[in-house]
Amino acid sequence: AWARNHHKAFQTKEDFEKEVVRHVETTLARSMFNCDESAAYSATGLAFRDRLVTRWNQTQQRQTFIDSKRVYYLSLEFLMGRALDNAMLNANLKDVAKAGLDDLGFRIEDIIEQENDAALGNGGLGRLAACFLDSLATLNYPAWGYGLRYRYGIFKQEIIDGYQVEVPDYWLDFNPWEFPRHDVTVDIQFFGHVHKMTDKNGKPFCHWEAGETVQAVAYDMPIPGYDTPSTNNLRLWSSKAASGEFDFQKFNSGDYESSVGDQQRAETISAVLYPNDNLERGKELRLKQQYFWVAASLYDIVRRFKKSKRTWKEFPDLVAIQLNDTHPTLAIVELQRILVDLERLSWDEAWDIVTSTFGYTNHTVLPEALEKWPVTLMQNLLPRHLQIIYDINLFFLQAVEKRFPQDRDLLSRVSIIEESQPKMVRMAFLAVVGSHKVNGVAELHSDLIKTTIFKDFVEIYGPDKFTNVTNAITPRRWLHQANPRLSDLIASKLGGYDFLKDLTQLSQLELSLNDKAFRKEWAEIKYANKVRLAKYIKATTDVSVNPTALFDVQVKRIHEYKRQQLNIFGVIHRYLTLKAMSPEERKKQQPRVSIFGGKAAPGYWMAKHIIHLVNNVGSVVNKDEDIGDLLKVIFLEDYNVSKAEMIIPASDLSEHISTAGTEASGTSNMKFVLNGGLIIGTCDGANIEITREIGENNIFLFGNLAEDVEDLRHAHTYGSHTLDPELLAVFSEIQKGTFGAPHDFEALISAVRDHGDYYLVSDDFHSYIETQALVDESYRNQEDWVTKTITSVARMGFFSSDRCINEYAEEIWNIEPLQVGSEF
Ligand code: 26Q
Q: Which residues carry this modification: N6-(pyridoxal phosphate)lysine (predicted)?
């Protein structure tokens, strides 16, 4: 009854207002007379959080009572963005809140804007985890996310004089969405020694006497599903000093400073998200983060399992653990350690349980992104784990040798230990050996891993261990929330919002292709979204852009393989072409706004040079009176999830132009198409499957294919390498100083000209320019363009993360949905 009353309290705007007022006056201890937008946000968040909590508890109780199999998604990154808008929409109460806030004198958009993004991730991998949590809850799967509660999320980016400057993202000062669980703690050990012991039955076992203990404290975030009471849990661990005797001794003996030092050292573990995307850096603190999080999560999972009173053999019947990249690979070793050292199972029994429990998702084939840790570092930090890794490797290599006798080369190729100087632990190999399924994230990528990095493992295990689950996105955030008018228009055609839970229903939109009123409204929505972005551009960069121009957008992490340099070289080429034209000729050209956004890893110099060049090109082009509206170049500062929600719906064309074979999937490509934008892209990652779904007439593909990349690179290095003449013209313009001191951009040029053009910028340049000309031509025919965008949206059903999660559930996790009672 209590739950019911509580729920009812949120059906009307009057009751909602009462709750807001109550929270302002009691929870926040403020008066409604000086309730500013920040307080209104806090109170609104708390009101929605209250109604989430009931469903959250019910969901958890039901899962525990039924003893259903749960999936645990281990990810060092959850790029959640804002929670309030999502909570309102998933509960179908945004209209109620809007009316209520209006009564109280606030605009709902302003209130939503108050929230800090939860930016606990770098890019694609972290946002994928967030989309998966949304689908898991919406589809009623019993699922938990486990991650780290970073005090600082991904840095905020400022652009000063054209350069990126990093500012810390302290996001936690008021966060109504998290619940500290000071009673849910785990002591995590590091360093120390391993002792061989014998138990009372005379059996030998290992005892790890650790040298440092840090405490993990759980913080929980409710994850609401869309149009369902199911509310899952995201558990993030925060580190603090363990309250051991050691500290007290120091404290009492007057060593106050060093006791505070211990405190700070402990808190450092969860202090900051590493800002590298697709680059591995072997820092000890990163390894400490990984083990801290993995050990706390596994302790928690095992503790929950033990309450079920099942035998260990049944562990994989109740628990599936998915590893988001190799970052949590130590979980494999930790579970083996728990089972063998602490629970005293035999090695083989334990290993059976371990491998049946884990699945591993690979997100990259880039060699520089494959995680490796020095054996010496591992030995020092986690001595017992290193022993177990050596044993896992020994048994694995013995099995390989049995099947492939006398192939010493194979053994050294697949060994988990790389016999280099210094020796390294290859985390991806450990993840493959310790999991029952390995998946890539798009078809091309899943094929590539089978023929490159994991080729030998396909020989050893057979092909069935390797599978594909093509990435996808949640249509709730990336259509309904980001583009409400488009969602409403689609709903009006499809007879309601069911398509948000079954995205294949979008196909019915093709029936409306010739509906004039519908097409008009479709085009108007795009235009309105562009007007909004134009206003934002004016407010943040002081550049006026014409919303009727073609908006060409590339927003993603800055990386050489993603080839923002190709884009900006293309922009310079366009500029030079326009400059060379007569005024009459210019009048016939298609106006364009080239919009860039994205963060560079702080230590990634090449990426920072790209940002600098984009900004410098912008400051020259944007004030060139010959050019006017024909070309504007914009760099949007601090690209993040909430900005993506504004930018993506405003794009006519977006760029997904990675060197073929380098972008595992990409997921923003799907977001752009779902919002009625077209793509210019290479035959890479999910672009290929997007093309398969929407049809090749609706996408602008260009460039060399993945299968040709190796030969081209070889030719650059060993054959004759002639650069594209139009690209050379771009280079000479840069070198003339047109865009600032040429020295600043020499590295970008010489990467192409002198260092083998690893990313094939020159090889693809002509094809890129030609295809951009085709885009201009297509855009001129607005009717055809609108037809292409409607057709594309209609065919995007495949890219809902609900489809993706169902595939994981069936093929990897073997779990079933669990409907929470509809009594509330
Ligand atoms: C590793 C070791 C040490 C420090 C940092 C890292 C690290 C951190 C983040 C390595 C990689 C990442 C992120 C990778 C990533 O975002 N990959 C992207 O994953 C998406 C979801 O599958 C794909 O769509 C993209 O193609 C892929 O680049």
A: 671
**Å from CA of 787 to ligand 1 middle:** 35
Return d(Cα 19, Cα 25) in angstroms, integer: 10
pLDDT at 260: 83
How high is the ipTM of this complex?
0.99
Residues touching ligand 1 (Cβ under 6 Å) are 122-125, 128, 274, 276-278, 280-281, 286, 363-364, 369, 371, 441, 471, 663-667, 685
Q: What residue spans of 516-602 are helical by DSSP H?
A: 516-541, 564-579, 583-587
Residue 488 lies in a domain: no
User: What is the structure's pLDDT at 95?
Assistant: 97
Residue 308: is its pLDDT beyond 70? Answer: yes
The answer to whether 459 and 73 have CB atoms below 8 angstroms apart is no
If you measure from the C-alpha of residue 693 to the centroid of ligand 1, how many angstroms do you get, rounded to a whole number? Answer: 25
- Say how many Å lie between the CA of residue 286 and the centre of ligand 1: 15
Mean pLDDT, residues 820-824: 58
The residue segments making up the domain with residue 601 are: 544-792
| pLDDT score of 6 more than 60 | no
Count the domains in the chain.
3
Residue 129: alpha-carbon gap to chain centroid? 6
> Is the CB of residue 152 less than 8 Å from the CB of residue 271?
yes
pLDDT of residue 716 exceeding 90, the answer is yes
- pTM score over 0.90: yes
| Residue 97: how many other CB atoms lie within 10 Å | 26
Atom 4, ligand 1: residue with shortest CA distance: 280
Quickly state the pLDDT bin for 471 (edges 50, 70, 90).
very high
Angle at 483 between CA 477 and CA 486, to 5 degrees: 125
Partners of 157 in beta bridges: 166
Mean pLDDT of the chain: 96
| DSSP state string for 52-105 | HHHHHHHHHHHHHHHT--EEEEE-S-EEEE-SHHHHHHHTT-HHHHHHHHHHTT
Cβ atoms of 224 and 231 closer than 8 Å: yes
Amino acid at position 256, single letter: Y
Tell me: do 433 and 571 sit in the same domain: no
pLDDT tens readout for residues 421-436: 999 999 999 999 999 9
Within this chain, do residues 98 and 147 fall inside the same structural domain, yes or no? no
DSSP letters spanning 715-782: HHHHS--PPPHHHHHHHHHHHTTTTS-GGGGHHHHHHHHTS--TT-HHHHHHHHHHHHHHHHHHHHSH
Predicted local distance difference test score (pLDDT) of residue 788: 98
Cα-based distances in Å from 562 to 366, 370, 554, 556: 12, 17, 10, 8
Atom 9 in ligand 1: residue holding the nearest Cα: 277
Mean per-residue pLDDT, 674-701:
98
Q: What is the C-alpha to C-alpha distance for residues 615 and 597, in angstroms, rounded to an integer?
A: 11
Q: How far is 322 from 328, CA to CA, in rounded Å? A: 9
Specify the residue with its C-alpha closest to ligand 1, atom 21. 125
Q: What angle do CA 371, 470, 138 make, to 5 degrees?
A: 105
CATH of the domain at 761: 3.40.50.2000
